[in-house]
Amino acid sequence: MEKMPYQDQLRLHPGSIPFDWHFGLPTIRGEKVTLREVQASDAAALLAMLTSEEVAEFVCPLPRTVEGFEAFIAEAHHERTRGNSFCFGIVPDGYADAMGLFQVRQLEPGFGSAEWGFAIGSPFWGRGVFVEGAKAVIDFSFGVVGVHRLEARSIASNGRGNAALRKVGALQEGILRRSFQRHGRYFDQILWSILKDDWRQTKAVWGPRFH
Fold first, then answer.
1. What DSSP line would sit under 130-197, residue for residue?
2. Which DSSP string corresponds to 66-119?
3. Beta strands 113-120 and 149-155, pairing class
């Protein structure tokens, strides 16, 4: 990222000082996007952005009402306090509400291995919002949470999503055959992974500006 990835008032940089994310997530500011803990006030915007057919086609089923998203957000906060997962709202530059989500959940106790998922409103596709936000989430996961291996699963026919994962340094490991069900049909998924050591090397290639 061009700017310091974590809010100035925290002076937080991965690996520099202890930060206990169980009590709340930091605000991560970039040039095109701000990541912050998803809030109940985001529910209406998330409903509008994430339930369109072009977005919903490739993600796990999401709530279909404002009340459903409010319950989803409350559960995300609860799971964060328990140390099971955390969820950032994606706030593009110039907006106040979240227009998408990054969610990371542990696959084993202690977050050694974790899985991340994401969804963002289609008006923000191809504008660099995902890439900048994804780099921040990956950096936070490895540098603050202590993740060693970060996995993602994407429907094989989701060309845009798979290209985005490749762009942030994820490596394709294999095909999970007929592992995702939607509308009574099963779809293949691609398994992607990033290791902590991979990420260090990727950042070194990108250089000190990390963009």
1. HHHHHHHHHHHIIIII--SEEEEEEETT-HHHHHHHHHTT-EEEEEEEEEEEETTEEEEEEEEEEEHH
2. HHHHHHHHHHHHHHHHTTSEEEEEEEETT-SS--EEEEEEESSTTSSEEEEEEE
3. parallel
Per-residue pLDDT of the chain (211 residues; tens, 9 = 90+): 233 333 333 333 444 445 799 999 999 999 999 999 999 999 999 999 999 989 988 888 889 999 999 999 999 999 999 999 999 999 999 999 999 999 999 999 999 999 999 999 999 999 999 999 999 999 999 999 999 999 999 999 999 999 999 999 999 999 999 999 888 889 999 999 999 999 988 887 776 555 4
Take residue 164 and report the two structure tokens written for it. Answer: 């985005």
Taking alpha carbons only, the member of 30, 46, 36, 158 closest to residue 99 is: 46
Total-model pTM: 0.87
Q: Which DSSP symbol is given to 53?
A: H
The contacts of residue 186 (CB under 8 Å, 6+ apart) are 178, 179, 180
Pair of tokens at residue 91:
């706030």
